Amino acid sequence: MWIFTSVGFISVVRSDLDSEKLAVRARKRKHLEMLLPDEEIVHLPNRDYKYRVFITQEKFTDLMLKLSTSINYQNFKSSVHEFNYQDACHEVWGVMNRYQRGAEEPVPCEVCGAMFYLDVDPIQGMETGIFGRRCWHCLSGVPRPPQQLHGFILKP
Ligand SMILES: [Zn+2]
Description:
With 156 residues, this protein is α+β, with helices and mostly antiparallel strands. Helices cover 33% and strands 19% of the residues.
């Protein structure tokens, strides 16, 4: 689970070392210090998320409760005060906004012009749009079957 809070971003997964624990992972030490000040932070410089704490289900439930009752803003992005983190939140907003638009209406492929949705190609089952506005065929180099010339990626 990804959680964006005013004071930090965390990614929470089941610990692979201890299935009773949750690994709360962060990209910045400060984010864990703000959210879980009493927990020991493990620094793993070569891992994707460099900072982690391992907590029980109960502690995570407490954190979620605390977070939910501390919402006192009408706009999340402006509740973030750390400049670089706020900037990242704006980008995430943009990505999810694009996702929403792509899921609702097709966009033209920037290479071949075929209309396609930015979420998932129903024929290939592949994510589309993640490397720019290119349909799956222009992205993968797999030629388009002739019977599927135009609009084949369109949802019914
Ligand atoms: Zn294309």
